Each structure stands twice: as structure tokens, then as C-alpha cells.
Amino acid sequence: MSTLFILAAVITLLVLLFWALRSPRRDNQAGAAGLESIEEPARQHATYFGVIRQVMSQEDFEFLAARGPGRLVRRAHKERQRIALLYLANLRADFQRLLRVAGVITVLSPEIAASHEFERLRLTIRFFWRYQTVLLGLYAGLLLLPQLGGLSQMVSELAFRMESAMKELGERAAVAAELASTLNRRGLDAT
Amino acid sequence: MHDLGLFTQSVWAVTAIVQALFLCLLHVRKNVSSYPAFSAYIFMTLAQSGLLFIAIKGWGFSSTVAWRVGWATQCIVIGARAFAVAELCRHILGRFLGIWVLARRILLASGVVVLLYALIAADHQWRLVLNTAERGLELAIAAVVVVLLLFARYYDIAVTSPLRLLAVGLCLYSCVAALNDAVLERWLSTYVSLWNVFGMTVFLACLLLWSWAFRKSAPQTVAAPLLLSGSVYLNLIPEVNLRLRSLNEQLIEFWRLEAPRT
């Protein structure tokens, strides 16, 4: 038993070592824009909210299903799926940007609270687990496309929350500028 | 000395030479002052080789004296390696005060947990108590190095090449040593010579890796990062966490939506 335990522990440690040594930025390109562009996603999303709302409108879909040819309905389904995937990708990008901001603040803070850090870790694990589940659901057809009609509501709510948060962050312009310059220097390397 | 076999003796001799050369390299490149604990660890491994050589030459490989010298020096060497790992942690995270305080606790806790678990999992085989303790310490050292690198990755702290190679060498050697001890415990009688050769070969490979890592001098002084005021963290992080939670809720909404029948 002991030998098996040691073997399992060593294999786990080696896998984690390999994972930890991978290039950290390879799977995080969405967050690469940094703090300068933290406000961009909300603005970009907001620009297209009207269009997305129209595309996701339940009435339009019902109308199309009732009168349009089958081929057109299938195409509409596909388009909706594509939009849902794009929306998901944007959620993920927003999440990663926030993580990066939090990371920079934490690394450069003289005092940090373990509770906040563990909460962020927990949220990160949950988010990526749920993200994969939703993605799988979309691809597997478990999430029916008409369900996505509710996305317009979700997107609007998100936009509102993001705008509010951005306003609050904007009030701390001095801090943001300080962070941005720090990020540009990116002097976080250890020697 | 004949008990060891010619091949084992050769690997031992080559390892001792590389150890001595590596110590010279550390001294010439002025890395001793930057990495005193690691230099002390390498010195102690060389001293261990010398003492073991004398003990085996004088009393024989299977003698009680050689066994005692072997384990006594091994305890010191593992302790020195633990200090070298602590030094590595300080080099990577030490400049970031907030992170460092948190990391110290987590690294210490993870090391202690792994050590205790390894000792408990040994099923109280007191005949092999030293072997078990060594294996537990090796696993704890490897776990601390891995958690350290995960920590650096999570906070996006770049680890320079020499430190990465140093960490990889320490972790790999500890993993192999722990595995080697576990196999030794199981097939004690038939495995001793192979255990010696395998352990020495891996250590030799680590020495070469570290020699490559320290081929250049490390900077003697490193500028401390410009830290933010404490209130920034307290004000912004709860907000960021709140927004992360709201993004999480967006994903949950995907499943909560009612599917209208069309």
C-alpha cells in the first residue's frame, strides 16, 4: 500500500510540476490586454446589445419556426448557438481580465487577506468548471437553442452591472493609473 | 569498497568530482552569497561523500559504522536541502510582502501535511523508521516546491531560469529519492546496489542541471517592487470578487432558463 501511495504521490507531483512550469500566458490570451482595456469589453458588448437582443428575441424565433422553411430555422438555430458561444467566450475573457487585475493588486499589496484569496480561487475553479459544462451542454444540444432567448435579458443585466462597476472603478482613477503603469512595467519577475 | 561494485564506484567518483566543480562554480560566479543555503547543501553532500568513503573504506559497506555515518549525514543533508528549498521560496516570493506572508503559511502547511501523511501511510513499520522518515521528508520537499511553482503561476509571478532549474532539480531529486526509498523498503535485499546507482545517477543529473543554471552570476541586489498602499487591496479586491461572483452567476443562469416549447 505504502509503495503504491508513494508512486501515486510522485506521479501527481510530477504532473503538477510539469503543469506549473508551462508558459503561463499561453492559455490566457484573453487577459493579455491588461488593465488598460478593462473597460473595453463592457463597451464592446454594450454596442451590440440591441442587435443581440433582436437576434435572441423569442417572438422572432417563434415566428420563424411557424412560417419559415426548415432550412432557415436550422440556420437560425446555428446562428443562435454561435452567438451563445461568443457570449460565453466574452464572459470568460471578462473573468480572466478581472483575475489578472486582482492578481496584480494582490502581488503588489503589502498585506492581503487569505479569505479573499481563497474566495477568488474557489470562484475561479467554479467558473471554469461551469464554463466547460455549459460549453459541453451547448455542443451536445442539452441546452436547447430556444433557451438562449433569455440571453438578451442576461446580457442586459450584465451590461448594467459592468457599467456600474466601471463607474466605481473610474472614481479610483489614480489607483487605476498606478496599476496600469505597474502592469506596463511588469516587473514581477523573481531573480 | 569491493562490495559496491566497479560501476557504482565510478558513478560515485564522477559525482564527487562534479560536486566539487559545482561548488567552485558557485564560488567563482559569486552565487554563494546569493544562495548560501543551497551552497551549504551542496557542500554537505560533498562532505557526506567523503565521510561515507572513509567509513566504507575503513569498516566495509555493510558495517554498522558505515550505516550510522550514512544515516547521520543523510539527516543533515536532508535538513540542508529543506533550508535550500526555503531559500528558493524566499527568492521567488520574498519580495512580494503580502503574498509571502500567505505563501509561507501555505507552503509550511502543505509540507507538514505531506510529511505526516507519508509517515502515517507507512503503517508503523518501525524497523524502517529512518527510511520512512526520509521518504516523508523527500515527499514534503517535493510538495513544497510544486506548491511554490503553482503559487507563482497563479499570481503570474515570473520565475527566472536559474530558479526554475533549481526548483526542478530539487523536486525531481526528492521525487526519485522518495520513490527509491519506497522500492528499497519493499525489495530490500535485492535492490540495494541498484538503489545506490540510481540515486547517484539522478543526483548527478541534477548537479549538471544546477551547474547549467548557475553558469552565470546572479544579480547581487534586486530592486524591490513598488508596493501599493494597503487600502487599495482592501477596497478593490472585495469588488473584484463580487464581479467574479456575478460572472459565475451568469453561467448558472444558462441552466436555470426555462425552455419554451416551440
Question: Could you tell me the strand content of chain A as a percent range?
Answer: under 5%
- The end-to-end span of chain A amounts to 41 Å
- Average pLDDT of chain A, rounded to a whole number, is 69
Shape of chain A: elongated
Report the strand count of chain B. Answer: 0
Structural class based on helices, strands and sheet pairing of chain B: mainly alpha
How many individual helices of chain A?
A: 7
Beta-strand percentage of chain B? under 5%
The low-confidence parts of chain A are: 26-34
Can you give a write-up of this model?
- The complex is a heterodimer of chains A (191) and B (262).
- Chain A has 191 residues and is mainly alpha-helical.
- Chain A has helices spanning 2-21, 40-55, 58-67, 70-107, 114-140, 151-171, 173-185.
- Mean pLDDT of chain B is 84; it is low at 257-262.
- Chain B is globular and about 70 Å long.
- Chain B has one domain (2-223).
- Chain B has 262 residues and is mainly alpha-helical.
- The chains are: A mainly alpha (191), B mainly alpha (262).
- At the A-B interface, helix 1, helix 3, helix 4, helix 5 and helix 6 of A face helix 3, helix 4, helix 5, helix 6 and helix 8 of B.
